Every structure is written in C-alpha cells, then in structure tokens.
Amino acid sequence: MSEEARSLNFIEHIVEDDLKNDYKKEELRFRFPPEPNGYLHIGHASSICLNFGLGLRYNAPVNLRFDDTNPAKEEKEYVEAIKKDVSWLGFEWDTECYASDYFQQLYDWAVILIKNGKAYVDSQSSEDIANQKGTPTEPGKESPYRNRSVEENLELFEGMKNGEFKDGAHVLRAKINMASSNMLMRDPVMYRILHKPHHRTNTDWCIYPMYDWTHGESDYIEQVSHSLCTLEFLPHRELYDWFLDQVVSSDKLRPKQREFARRNLSHTVVSKRKLLQLVEKGVVEGWDDPRMPTISGLRRRGFTPESIRNFADTIGIAKRDNVVDVSLLDFYVREHLNKIAPRVMAVLNPLKVVITNYEEGKEEWLDAENNPEDESAGSRKVPFSREIYIEQEDFREEANRKFFRLKLGGEVRLKNGYIIKAESCSKDDNGHIVEVQCTYDPKSKSGSGTEESLRKVKGTLHWVSIPHAITAEVRLYDRLFTDATPDSHKEKDFMDFVNPDSLEKVTGYLEPSLRDAKIGEQVQFQRMGYFNVDKDSTPEHLVFNRTVTLRDTWAKLEQKE
User: Is 115 annotated as a binding residue?
Assistant: First the structure.
C-alpha cells in the first residue's frame, strides 16, 4: 500500500491539522522519552514506531530523550540497553538528550516561579500532603506553609539544593488551585530532596524534579512540536500546559501534548515493576530472557526487527486501551522468518531407524534446498547413511488411515532422500519402541527423475543421519503466563499464573551443516518451528532457542477448551 493510499491515524490527523494552522513543516520535531529504570518492552515498540514513523513520514528529527529524574531507580545499564533496542528496531535518533542536562535550567525556572508567587516550599510530610489533596468530589485543603514569604521560600529552596536538609524534610510545590476539579492541579510537587548519586550528575544535586515539571519543560527546551504520551497522561495535559505557561516566550514554538492508547499483549505483563519482580525472584534469568516481552528478550528469542515493526503497524494507534493477542505477534515473526530462514533438519525426540538393505559403512550426500521461498538461497549437501533418527511421534506400530507417517507395513518419503518401508520394530523391557527396522527403495531418491522417485506416498519425514549428527541444547520456549490477562485479577497475584512449562530443555540431533552456526543465526527446523542460536552458544556447545512453532498450537488448545 502506498503512503498516499494509506489512511492516516488520528495522531497524523492532528499533525496535519496543525500544519494547516499554526505549525510549519520545518518546525516539526518528535521525541521518544523512556525512563531508564528498566528494559524496553513490546509496548514501548509501538511508541518507538509511532514517533520515529512520524519522523520518517514528515522528514522531521526525532530526539531520544532519557527522562532520568529518579536516581533511586535509574542506571546506565538501562540507558545502553534502550539505545541498543531502538537502533536494532531500525531507527536513528537526531539528538541524544537527557532530562538531567536541564537540571540547572529547571532549577532557575523554579526560582522564577517562587519569585512570581507561583511556587512554595512545603515542610509537611508526604502523608499530610496526600491527606490534604481532597477527593474528586471534595476540594483539597491549603498547606499551612502555602503563604510563606518569597524570601523564606527562596532561602529554603536554596538550602534544599545545597543539601542542608534530610530526605523528605521539604518539597517545592506549585501554587495553583487546591479546589481544582483536576486533582493533579492541586498544588503538585515540583521537587523533592533525594540524597542519592545520579548516573550522570553524580552528587551534584540533592534535589530532583518531578516528572510533570520536567516533561513539558524538556519538550520546550528541545523545541519538540508534538509530545505523544499514553492515555494515563491525559489528566496531566492541563498541568503540562500550566507549567509551559510560566516559561514560554512568543518567539519559540510551544509543544503540544497528545495521547494515544496503550497496546497490552495477552499472556504477559508489561509493567516494569512486575517485569523486575520476575527477574529478582528468579522466574526468568534476566531482562533478556527469551520468555520476557522485553525487546531484548524478543531479540534473543529470534524475533526480527521487521516482524515487530509490522506488528506495531498492524495494531496501529487507538484512543482506547485494549489487549492484543500475542498470536498476532507470533504470526508476523512466522511470516518474516518463512521468507528468510534456511530450512534444516533436526530431531528433538529421537527414534533410531535402521535401513537394513542399505550397505553398512556407506554414506552419500544428498541435495537439499535451503529455502523454497527464496531462490537465491541455494542448496546444501546433507549426509545419508544406514542409521538415522526420526521423531518418536512419527512412528506407530499400528495406526488408522489418517496417520500419514511411518507405521508397520507403511511407507514414507525421507525429506530429500528415499522412500522407506517399516518392516519391524524393537522394544525395551518396558515395552517402549527403541528401534525401527526399515527397507528402502534404491531407485526412489528425490530428484533422480526415475519412475520410482516420482511415486507418490502421503507422508514425508525429516531425519538426521546418526553417524553425522551433531548435538545441541535446544530450549523450547512457550508463553510465560497461562492466563491471557495475568495482572487483571483483583483476588490473585499475577505470579499465580506463571506457566510452569514455559521452558523445556532437550538435546537435539542436528544435521552437520549447523556445526558452525553463529550466535543470532535463524533457521527453520523442518516441521518443528523456527529457531535461532542463543548467546550462550559456544563452538563446543551449541544452544538453540525456539522462536515460535510453525503453527499456533495455543489456538488449538483454546478451541478444545
């Protein structure tokens, strides 16, 4: 679909209307403003695609701004992870900015507000301040410190800055309206005392600005035209504008805050606090665990930037919060990997097959197509021998006519190889089948052009030659939660819905072409799913992660239920 033909989302309509009225195209500037207190997740991907997508659409710069105003929770590790995620998704920012760059300017503006009688130092406890806020239907009560003199406020605020008081001794509040119907306008806190080193300013500051005070002012300093936030910030817009009213000048562009809905993903949580809980309690192995909905977790699992961008484009931008089924995200990674991932053979639950009429010690190398979706992908050689592995589930001693895999007296084709027929099987003392004896038709080799090779049999199996097989650790990942909305239950903790089967580790037997597979390399294990090489891999110990199965197995389970 061409850019012209594509219908605009409501945010783009807002931009278009602004361009018709009071904005010039060269004045457009957007920003993506993460707080560096955790790793980005799939919800952030939508915001990244929205802001950077607008930048691409209007050929406008996009800032990457870290809202780093809380040193108690923020770390340089998170800053670096966020930068890596945005770049990996395929976007380039114009300027790397930090709210901490503006601490002095924000302080100077706060002093002006005090001098203008629009801010004051409150010496009450946070509990007392909260109790005086009132309710949505009842006005708040004014602080006993609300009418301190300008001189006293300036002296106290400077003392706060210089570290003369303990944490919590004072706060700076905006003097607005304690009877406002919008509770956020009831003298909001602008600064609090916090004696903690900052990841960039170290111990230069003992006071830190609150988000509402920092947000709009940072946008104004950077001359951001459109400040796009999620819906929970809609009530904050009035305060955003009030703070801007105190500092804007007529010769500079005034930013606009506009809101869009969150897109939550089923069978997961996207609260950073809850994600941190999963990490700290050892439910997962870290922020980049492949079961996590973080961008780094999805990357490690084998998702591609293209699949995530396509997913974000499809779900679009809306005005109401909703939950998007995770199967849609899986669909887009399947669609992309189907085009780019080479097909290889791997057996994860092996059953030994001996081809009794194949010469002992003999081997041959068969031609195998790398990807039927990509003609340029070429082909490779796959070794064949007398003894091979197939999947346990691909053989039954007895089966009905709808079972098109291997059964006694039945025939199947081995992928890229020969037609084999099951003649007998061997069992252990517990009655479990441990080996199948087969015969093969020497003239039935795939691609040989013989009459026998053109013979149709209904089943085709993947397989691996036992003497040539390499072993690998294969991690079979599944959904982290059994419930579609694990954090929506009032009487249960979201941790109650952790899926105990979200990870299974097995030993896989792989064709030898994978011996030199590199970290991040993506393949399709034929008939099994899409996999990629994990960062834990070494040349001596390969580790593969299952990105996604070939089909949505959860959909089948839900239909049965």
Answer: no
